[in-house]
Amino acid sequence: DRGQQVGLVDDGARDVINESNLLPSICGRVCPQESQCEAQCVVGRKLESVAIGRLERFVGDNAGARKAAPPQFERRLGRVAVVGSGPAGLAVAADLVKYGCEVTVYEALHVVGGVLQYGIPAFRLPREIIAREVQALEALGVRFETNKVIGKTFSVPQLLGDKGYDAVFVGAGAGAPAFLGIPGEFAGQVYSANEFLTRVNLMGGDKFPYLDTPVTIGKSVVVIGAGNTAMDCLRVAKRLGTPTVRCVYRRSEAEAPARVEELRHAREEGIEFFFLHGPLEILVDDAGNVRGMKTQKMELGEPDERGRRKPVPTGDVVELECDTVIYALGTKANPIVTKSTPGLALTKWGYIVADETTQSTSVPGVFAGGDIVTGGATVILAMGAGRRAARAIGAWLAGGKAGWPVTPAEVEAFRPPAPRAAPASPVPSGALPPRAPAGADPLTPFRELSP
């Protein structure tokens, strides 16, 4: 209830938010609030909408010091393994442990958070925010194991067999890169968005030669695509000191998938936009490195099957100088988990087929959600899938295999056990979290004022 949430900002809003969103500090920073919640604000019909996203962020940031110690859950329904610690994995783990399950989350990387860690820059999502949310889950009893690649370290069938888990949730994300297939895209200095952001966010690629995982960019970068990930790549490249950073997108600005806020921030930081330009070829020098890009100008034609006006070439070709190209055209499903799970039904694109109500898959006891099911989407949608899966897994464990397949009625009939309340922690007087370093966060956070 957004109205109730706003009305209780100074007392109790975190409890209201947690009914539907377990990661308000994160969603308040990276989710498209202007379309998901602020677009529904009745105030916006006459005036500017209430800043619901920033209020949610404020509550999430400031409730941490005040919330009571986590309740102790006595009931044990069963053991559940969660593959991936991104938004879907964190959400399903949080609900399952409250239902009374023993939950272990397996993460392929060396840090917990999945795409929140490798795919979103720290200036948009400070790492201490992720760490705090993870610590809260650990306090509830969730176990995290890093450097475990499911499908390599061990498989989903092994989790259900030798490892003794009663159910598995697959929230492995969709991190495989997508390319265009144009000439020159395998030249030196061509990155996928995931590789580029991972090298900077997790591997210190911007600190070469002090760390040995360099991101080598020169004086001019072109990013292909205009989604939120593209905006992140553009702004990171600018922060690395690149003088000229350009965005190339084959549709108009109105069709750009990025949030209006992200487009505005990129412009404010000096990013150049080439809308209605379709990449034709990456030009390569004699050493095999990028030296430029050819694009063709486009105009919008008739709508396609999804209702979007299809870009049509005009015949005009433009050559852009650049020495680095970053592909930010979305991602594909990584096949490591799916290929090692016999009987798992997949779409023609390699994503897991999961029931929209229960997130159940074709393999009994295996559930899935997030980008590995839907393709690239938002944090809040991935979390929603995790929460639906948690309810279904709870019903599955409560009823046993005789209740398979889990029906919507069974899901709704299952309720988590009542926790044993723990004493509240002392309330610090006037304590506020430290401010981010100057220039790190483009949005000035709300501050709590004394009455």
Count of separate structural domains: 3
CATH superfamily of the largest domain: FAD/NAD(P)-binding domain
Computed over alpha carbons, the radius of gyration is: 23 Å
Please describe the biggest sheet, giving its number of strands, its sense, and whether it closes into a barrel.
Answer: 5 strands, parallel
Q: How many strand units?
A: 15
The CATH class of the largest domain turns out to be Alpha Beta
What is the helix content? 25-40%
End-to-end Cα distance, whole Å, is 26 Å
Explain this structure to me?
- The protein is of the alpha/beta class.
- It folds into three domains: 2-63, no CATH class; 79-175 and 333-413, FAD/NAD(P)-binding domain (3-Layer(bba) Sandwich); 180-330, FAD/NAD(P)-binding domain.
- It is built from 16 helices and 15 strands.
- It has helices at residues 2-7, 13-18, 24-30, 33-36, 52-63, 87-99, 115-118, 127-140, 156-160, 193-201, 228-239, 260-268, 335-339, 371-374, 379-399, 408-413; strands at residues 79-83, 102-106, 143-145, 167-170, 176-177, 190-192, 220-224, 244-249, 272-275, 277-284, 290-303, 309-321, 324-327, 331-332, 366-368.
- It has a five-stranded parallel beta sheet with strand order 3-2-1-4-15. Strands 6-13-7-8-9 form a five-stranded parallel beta sheet. The chain has a three-stranded antiparallel beta sheet with strand order 10-11-12, with no helix packed on it.
- α3 (24-30) runs antiparallel to α5, α6 (87-99) runs parallel beside α15 (379-399) and α10 (193-201) packs across α11.
- The protein starts with a helix and ends in a 38-residue tail after the last helix.
- The model is unreliable at 4-9, 401-405 and 415-439 (pLDDT under 50).
